[in-house]
Amino acid sequence: MNNYCAACGKNLEGLGFKCRYCGEYFCVEHQLPENHNCQGLDDWKAGKLKKFKKDVEVPKKPNETELKKIVKNNKWLEFFLVILGVGLLVFLLRMLA
């Protein structure tokens, strides 16, 4: 890391901001790409640089049949649900007694 702002030459004193478009370090006043006339930002807008965010596919919510398959195939989950059901039944019986 360079200890001086790439735009004005000010000493960064360990608090430099790295531009995600050009990779240079800047002071607080020049940290935004618009404030230091970032060439990397222009290239990114023109599509010359790779996109930073990946397209993430949001997983769909499983329907009831898929949930039953998941529970059936997962023995530990099935065991936990049985124990939870028994515990709840014991709790309710004690409340009634």
Shape: elongated
Structural class: mainly alpha
Percent in strands: under 5%
Which stretches are poorly predicted, pLDDT < 50 over at least 5 residues?
A: none
CATH class of the largest domain: Few Secondary Structures
The largest sheet has its strands arranged as 1-2
The biggest beta sheet is recorded as: 2 strands, antiparallel
Q: Helical region count?
A: 3
Q: What share of residues is helical? A: 40-55%
Mean pLDDT: 81
Give the CATH architecture of the largest domain.
Answer: Irregular
Q: In angstroms, what is the radius of gyration?
A: 28 Å
Termini gap: 72 Å
Give the number of DSSP strands.
2
The CATH superfamily of the largest domain is identified as AN1-like Zinc finger
Stated plainly, the CATH topology of the largest domain is called Zf-an1 domain
Order of helices and strands: EEHHH
Describe the structure.
By secondary structure, the protein is mainly alpha-helical. It has two domains: 1-56, AN1-like Zinc finger (Zf-an1 domain); 64-96. It contains three helices and two strands. A two-stranded antiparallel sheet has the order 1-2. The chain is elongated, with a radius of gyration of 28 Å.
